[in-house]
Amino acid sequence: MAGSHVDVAVVGGGAAGIAAARRLRDAGRDVLLLEARERLGGRAFTRLDPAGGPLDLGCGWLHSGDVNPWTEIAGRAGLKVDRSPAPWSRPGMGLGFSEEDLASFQAAREAFHDQLGELLRRGDAPASDALEPGGRWNALLSAIYTYVSGGEIGRISARDLVNYGDTGFNYRVAGGYGALIAGHVGDAPVALGTAVSRVDHTGASIRLETAKGTIEAEKVVIALPSALIAEGAVAFTPDLPQKREAAAGLPLGLADKVYFMLDRPDGFEADSRAFGRRDRVATAAYHFRPSGRPLVEAYFGGDCADALEREGEPAFADFALAELSGLFGEGIRARLSPLPTHLWRADPFARGSYSFALPGRAGDRKLLAEPVDGRLFFAGEACSEEDYSTAHGAYRTGIAAAEAILAGE
């Protein structure tokens, strides 16, 4: 590989990079996909539980599944797509909600969304400005947005939230979302364990410096998380300070998962859920028996997830067991066995889970996506103005970058 020359190099083997490389390969282009890890998928990562079932430690839901391109890709691959309603879209908000509480919460949520629209009449603002001052459900609403965005609601752009496109259909795929995405690479050439440290675009050919040597390409797709661009993990020569600045306006939020094996199903309806607490932002959401499997999925977001990562992986299980004991009694501890997880902030090739825009910075998505000199193309969920934070948003930006290259032939 060292000293090789290709038409197009794609940097980053997540959903965007895989989509770009596969499209270019299918079009007959000489392409090479460079991935720093020893696996493909990026922030889509499927492991197996002790019984051999898939655990998606990164993205797990085919959001907007009715128009999500991964749904069609799964169908072509012969994989079953589960179209049953997601836990959060089922009647009620989860265990512990009375009809009165549910009506009150729904009214608060609708008022929040209405107020987001009002905020935008005056320009952008932190999404927290749309909360009712002193509102009963502010803590829970704020907690939910740490799961949705990975960041605290006071740091999230109201305009970015409103821009997000969601059809309300959320599917799952047999075998795991991460496995589906990694497998989509097809026969596109891949170099694993090949982190790119510098992209030198001064000459007639672009030079990519890696630990395994230098590669030359005529065009390059940069399909990396916004955090890595903002931090300068890959250096550009000449420098691209405008790209770093745009990426800095789109920090990666954090969402971590911990799965527990559940010893027996009694007492928990399949695909039901609960919140650990309703009176504080630092709480987890719990999904019981996903797809009927003997599991509990605990979901952590924002500052809560950041703090637990600093304590180490066991802290997540301890936190979850404490909350679940508060909900179901101490006996629940003996029924749950935590499984290994993946910490996304600590992952040097991710530095977080998915992007949100800071107040006033929603426009940075378009800026980050713009090509440079018709030779450098950018892709990834952070480049999507309406499908950000999703694998289908990443896919679409990867396809867009590939199509731009093909159109320029």
From TrEMBL:
Pathway: Plant hormone metabolism; auxin biosynthesis. It catalyses: L-tryptophan + O2 = indole-3-acetamide + CO2 + H2O. Residues 16-406 form the Amine oxidase domain. It comes from the Bacteria. It is an enzyme of class 1 (oxidoreductase). Signal peptide: none annotated. Its EC number is 1.13.12.3. Keywords: Auxin biosynthesis. Belongs to the tryptophan 2-monooxygenase family. This is Tryptophan 2-monooxygenase. It comes from Chelatococcus sambhunathii.
